[in-house]
Amino acid sequence: MSLADKTAAELVALQAAGGASAAEVADAFLAAVRDREPKLRAFVSVDEAEVKRQAATVDAKRRAGQPLGRLAGVPVAVKDVLCTRGVRTTCSSKILDNFVPPYDAHVVERLKAEDAVILGKTNMDEFAMGSSTENSALQTTRNPWDTDRIPGGSSGGSAACVAGRQAPVSLGTDTGGSIRQPAALCGVVGVKPTYGRVSRYGLVAFASSLDQIGPFARDVTDAALLLEAVAGHDRRDSTSVDRPVPVYTRTVNDPVAGLRIGVPKEFFGEGLDPEVETAVRAALKEYEKRGATLVDVSLPHSPYALAAYYIVAPAEASSNLARFDGMHYGHRTKQKADLIGTYSKSRGEGFGKEVQRRIMIGTYVLSSGYKDAYYVKALKVRRLVKKDYDEAFERCDVVMGPTTPTAAFRIGEKSDDPLAMYLSDVYTVSCNLAGIPGMSIPCGFTAGGLPIGLQLLAPPFEEEKMFRIARMYESVTDWHTRRPGV
Ligand code: GLN
Fold first, then answer.
1. How many domains does the chain have?
2. How many whole angstroms separate alpha carbon 424 and alpha carbon 404?
3. Active-site residue 178, yes or no?
4. What's the pLDDT tens digit per position in 365-418?
5. CA of 209 to the centre of ligand 1 (A)
């Protein structure tokens, strides 16, 4: 077994026992990146010399007997929407093509403080808008299970590199499903924490009231390990919550006694692929066999969640993206123009089609005369979506259903049809609107060999219990151990 096949927890233990150095681990993953990048295109930047330098620093600290962090010598890939000091951060957009941040995002600081090695920056849909990573202005990432298919999005690079074993773990962001959906489509674990659990400082904002940063991993334990390393209060993000971070890895193997699983009928309706439904229902059966009780719950407003999301998210995006004006950062037009002309030409040249569409939708739904009909109405729906979950959680510990309506679709299949693309988020957006934690874990494959994801949704700040519930299933199944052919 190559070092690049090991999980983060295994790599930490192995290095602590003297079985491998951080330099050897880094070399193994750099070799895996070199080997599979021509097919996967998961990374937008990898600085090999810098990776080796970081690994050597960890080894030197270890030799000197200095205390080491909980991710000592673990390579971590980071979505290119998270600022990295001195390292280009593009958001996979032409407008930030040459942007080198002068500071690290909070989560990147946390990774460094835990002695992780930042392996590289991963490809994404431009400004995290999309569900396939095809909206990247830089390259198209492929699904390791079938390279003619999309890896999901927007954190497609972070999902593909973990599934393709180029990195043991990675960070992504989830505004409407961008961690859980690509995790499901690539057959890995992906976690969207409670809103406020992880600081958004240094995350290039898409929709600030929905954005959260979270881990991708091959198993639940590694996801728990990465989340406990990056979570916690940070005064630079006013929405970050000051509340202790449990040591998730300590309890992850404790099963939940008397587990009650809420099964919402709204998650099993029209549009759900029968193969996905079969796999998810089989997973629920497995829980029943382990003593869990399935409870019928209803989330009556979930049919309106997608529409509300596609108003709230563009509204916030149109405001957040106003800062890209060709003056402060990134691309500025070469065409001669006055001030307003320079703004609009720079933005017209720098933003891709989907980003422009979102800015226009967002500006429209916020404009005077339409604001009450769209934006304010969507906020009311959002409140009702949250209330549905509050009521459901009075009757169960966790809500379960499919993460996505179908397995990975073909490259190009939906790229000309924004509405079809938006519909792939139908089961993931309500979690962000409600601010609750959610995750996707592997629960099977289609007959064609494509991974299927089971979604778990929990009450606010119950990540600890959510991990234990996920691990209960993982510990009796082997989906997470299968590897793609790439
Ligand atoms: N696919 C959704 C969108 O395009 C979600 C994106 C995300 O979570 N960043 O908005």
1. 1
2. 6
3. yes
4. 999 999 999 999 999 999 999 999 999 999 999 999 999 999 999 999 999 999
5. 13
